[in-house]
Amino acid sequence: MSALDGLEVRRTTTAQQLADGLSERIMAGAFGPGDRLRESAIAAELGVARNTIREAVRILELTGLVRYEVNRGAVVIAPTPEKIEALYTARERLETAAVIRAPRPEQLEAITRAFDEIAEAAAEGDTGRIVDRDLAFHQAIVALLDSTRLDEFFTAMTKELRFYLTVLSKSETPEEVVAQHRVILDAIRLGDHDRAVAEIRAHIDVSVEQLKQLLRR
Amino acid sequence: MSALDGLEVRRTTTAQQLADGLSERIMAGAFGPGDRLRESAIAAELGVARNTIREAVRILELTGLVRYEVNRGAVVIAPTPEKIEALYTARERLETAAVIRAPRPEQLEAITRAFDEIAEAAAEGDTGRIVDRDLAFHQAIVALLDSTRLDEFFTAMTKELRFYLTVLSKSETPEEVVAQHRVILDAIRLGDHDRAVAEIRAHIDVSVEQLKQLLRR
DNA sequence: ATGAGGAAAACTGTAGTACAGTTCAACTGT
DNA sequence: ACAGTTGAACTGTACTACAGTTTTCCTCAT
């Protein structure tokens, strides 16, 4: 334990900090889907130069939360049925590929722990936290693939997912969420790959349908 | 066939064009792995402003060919054994997940065609083209997953892969490449999933080993 | 020669100004 | 109600400037 422990210099750029901050705001719903991020306004409000904002937004683009349109600048991604479908299809492929692998003990433990945290958040009824833990549970499943690249890819998708789930209000009861995840967990623990795959498919189908439903208004 | 077919206005920005151009140069080996992209030099040489280059490089970052380091700017990614391993592991997971699905006729045809093109390029002995078609073959396999998001993800990885394969010179004969892909194709056509998985694993193991070997110098 | 130290040069990160070309919204006359 | 016009608001890009970091290069003691 050094006397300098915890001391750390700024090791990050303004643009990076702005990107992080904006990312947070967007996910919190400060900008609605389809909204444009106006550079001068943001720059003026935060007291930074416009090119710095521009760079921050380019960094944001990495996470997939905004995309650039020529002469219109950065636009917050807007969910469409096709996009949601594409996102969930990718999830389905990854997660089903993951659960047919034999989990190592610590992986199994991580998934179990993730489930417990969902249950805990559900008991408290904190919807925001339920979403977070829900995503963490699925992240733990993808981790079964033992591929850092795929983990990263899933993390990126997670940002979009959380965004959708946050912007569109939720329509499931916490109990339903817990129940759905419990059957997945059970199947994994039992080593019943076929059932795990089936449960994941069912879970994802339900989610897609709910999201589409919410979107239709 | 409209009379206006093919007509298209510029619909792209300078930064985007620069990003494309730089990407090409990097993959062609104009910049070695680990090299820094010096903004002022590039800006001066191409007659554009430095902030435009900066933006172009941020776009480049999207494809994973460069990454930013604080106060050092953009650096061309350098292959390390760990990175190569991570890349190929992700490939392996995707491709094996793909071949256990039953291919639709047009997907099978696409893969077959991709193989034929490998054979064709091999006959000509054009190593650059062999690499391209090799990657296209694997892209066709990943397409079996029917997920545009995963296709895109694989495409991004492909850029890195091609880069490695281009920078590091090749050490396989064209015949070996063709033979390796033929067994994969055969297994897929026969619907023998287990063998297809095994062949893909073998193929990827060989590639990783060769790359690491080349890297050790 | 060689390695340590330190000064200078080269660059990045950021700010700020400017302006042409585009998009968008409000206004106008029909 | 509506097509057309106009002007304001913005984006894309260029240029200049400068503080803070790296990198390079030179010097000096060993």
UniProtKB/TrEMBL annotation, chains A, B:
InterPro entries associated with the record = GntR_C, TF_FadR/GntR_C, Tscrpt_reg_HTH_GntR, WH-like_DNA-bd_sf, WH_DNA-bd_sf
Give one Pfam hit by family name.
GntR
Q: Which residues form the HTH gntR-type domain?
A: 12-79
Which keywords belong to this entry? DNA-binding, Transcription, Transcription regulation
In terms of domain of life, where is this protein from?
A: Bacteria
User: Which GO terms label this protein's molecular function in UniProt?
Assistant: DNA binding; DNA-binding transcription factor activity
Write the protein's name: DNA-binding transcriptional regulator, GntR family
Could you tell me which SMART domains the record lists for this protein? FCD, HTH_GNTR
